[in-house]
Amino acid sequence: MRILLFTSLALLAGCSAEKAPAPAPSMEASAQPPAPTAPPAQIPVTAREVHEKNDLYEFDYSYPATAGSIPALKALLDGELEKARRELKAEATEGQKLAQEGGYPFNPYSHSVEWKVVTDLPAWLSMSTLVGFYSGGAHPNYVYDTILWDRIAGKRRAPIDLFTSKAALTESIRAPFCKELDRQRARKREGQNMGDIAEFSECIDPAEQTVILGSSNGKAFDRIGILISPYAAGPYAEGDYEVTVPVTPKVLAAVRPEYRAAFVAR
């Protein structure tokens, strides 16, 4: 964000050391209402988007104006942005050095984050992102991340912390989650058998994945999303999985009492 600084210039006049007394204001002048003062200029809240590309790395980081309008959240995101950029630069510099010493080509590293709003409620802001990265391996990779911002407390919370425990959340959504995951697996695999790879054929723990909270009514959380990165539920070629399950009375029972008013069963 660019900030324009304006400097006012004062005009100095008069050669004598003595100042002539100012004329008394006339009745007509004093009877006039004071001129209205202009309101202070408002700085618009905008989204932030950073893009850098050079011989060492490519870096992208962005977040929406909804997040930028919350000072504490903006500060958190700006801090994470700078940290990610520093770490990427350091890792890419080291990778380039090793490539030169080993006599093999160096491919620029990359890191990308694009925060998007999942749900914007009066007391909560839920966001998610796909974190893409490349650090010299056979191919790029990516993982998910989430921010659940508590507007009342003014702090970031992990979605899982709104439940009594990970185990309680898993138990409340396991059946519909596993059913939908298997349905998506079958569609992607088109009959291919993954029985020889247990982690790609058995159900996984949804609470160990990236959990996001969503809403269809803009008033309360009524659905839960499970974002699954490559390798967690299937081979890299299958990509990621996204499973959404509704908030049910069973899920409500797993929510901590102090947060239950933020949820509604569907």
Automatic annotation (TrEMBL):
One Pfam family from the record: PdaC
InterPro entries: PdaC
Coiled coil: 74-101
Every Deacetylase PdaC domain range: 51-142
Highest taxon above the source species: Bacteria
Region (Disordered): 21-41
Signal peptide: 1-19
Key words of the record: Coiled coil, Signal
Compositionally skewed regions (Low complexity) per UniProt: 21-32
Designated name of the protein: Deacetylase PdaC domain-containing protein
Species name: Novosphingobium taihuense
Classification of source organism: Bacteria, Pseudomonadati, Pseudomonadota, Alphaproteobacteria, Sphingomonadales
